[in-house]
Amino acid sequence: MTRLIVAAGGGGDAVAAAMLHAALYGDEDQAVILTYAWDRLLVDPVPGPRRPSDFTGLERVTRSVWSVPAEARPIAPSGSTLPRLAAELPHTFALIDPQHGAEGITRQLEELVSHLEPTSIDLLDVGGDILARGDEPTLKSPLADALTLAACCQVNAPIRLLVAGPGLDGELPIAQVQGLLGPLVHTLTAKDVEPVSSILEWHPSEATGMLAATARGVRGVCEVRDAGLPIPLTDDGPTVHEVDLDDALSRNELARAILSTTTLDEAETHSREICGYSEIDYERNKAAWLKDQTPGKLDPKTVLTELDQFEARARSRGVTHTTFRHLTEALNLDGGKRQDLRQLLINRRVDQYTAPLWSVVR
């Protein structure tokens, strides 16, 4: 028995897919998780998604689909979390290659469906930005989701669209997302998080980290991203809802525009026209900016002093938690120091570690 789960935006959606499999399908055979190799710049300093030629050690699944086993390695300077995910989870991680646009991803899906004959196909998005029109001022990363949505709507197979953790990605206001959701499918629990608990100790995804935290019962307000965006952690956080796939496509102007695209560049052009930007342009600009920055050093005494100041300011804003990604940037540390910072703080103040978040309230 094979389940196919498409991680709509890549990154943390792939980790959430493993949670979803545990929650909905229990001890069944492993899933095939189709996902982008598209990580944050602190993992992969090269902007945009990786293609198969950016890896060594991939395994061919179909003519157009390659899987990323634990032995695979990204070719420097590229980086990827997928080999480590493959090493720590029982699932097969197949690589979405968006270089041939929505038509290319559609072809990949059709080949996988024919090859696997899956019992079910789920398209999973954490947060709900896959339901965006494209012109929302808070929208930051519509392209990856729009591509997978466009592809899934063209496959001749039943595909269920699921949104987990409505509003946790900070892309659309929670009230707006809630009005677009269909039936409740599941409410994630601490037990559902157990299969990925070790992953959450190192994976940089903020939305999936908050999804797991709310499933464990954490409530409050969490600051995320470099800008310190406040995200409410509520009882809606661990919920998983179904949304009609065709309704999502009807709403998502970008997804409709890129249905027949055959290159990623073409899809990017549509994103600039409809949304006013491309998230890959943002990554290009930030990567260039980071090259000119001189990050601070991780001196424990200095870090703890600056942490006290940050926490006081955060509490004054009504914040209760933050992610280690945001904390690393707020303390002007290099992204590569995130794990070192996490370990330092847990060792010194373990009572403030509300896995995988950091509590600013003592």
Description:
The protein has 362 residues and is α/β, with parallel strands linked by helices. Helix content is 39%, strand content 17%. The protein is built from 15 helices and 16 strands. It has helices at residues 12-25, 82-88, 101-116, 143-152, 174-178, 190-193, 197-200, 206-215, 245-251, 253-257, 264-275, 279-291, 300-316, 324-330, 338-348, and strands spanning 3-7, 31-35, 55-56, 59-60, 66-67, 73-74, 92-95, 120-126, 160-164, 184-187, 220-224, 229-233, 239-243, 321-322, 353-354, 357-359. A seven-stranded mixed β-sheet has the order 7-2-1-8-9-13-10, with helices on both faces. The protein has a five-stranded mixed β-sheet with strand order 12-11-14-16-15. α1 (12-25) links the parallel β1 (3-7) and β2. α1 (12-25) packs parallel to α8, α3 crosses α4 (143-152) and α14 packs across α15 (338-348). The model has no long low-confidence stretch (mean pLDDT 95).
The number of distinct β-strands equals 16
Structural class: alpha/beta
Oligomeric nature of the chains: single chain
Largest sheet: 7 strands, mixed
Instruction: Round the mean pLDDT to the nearest integer and report it.
Output: 95
Q: What is the spatial order of strands in the main beta sheet?
A: 7-2-1-8-9-13-10
Q: What is the distance, rounded to the nearest whole angstrom, between the alpha carbons of the first and last residues?
A: 47 Å
Q: Compute the CA-based radius of gyration.
A: 19 Å
Task: Give the CA-based shape.
Answer: globular
Q: Would you identify the regions where 5 or more consecutive residues have pLDDT less than 50?
A: none
Name the helicity range: 25-40%
Task: Compute the number of helices.
Answer: 15
Strand percentage, roughly?
A: 15-25%
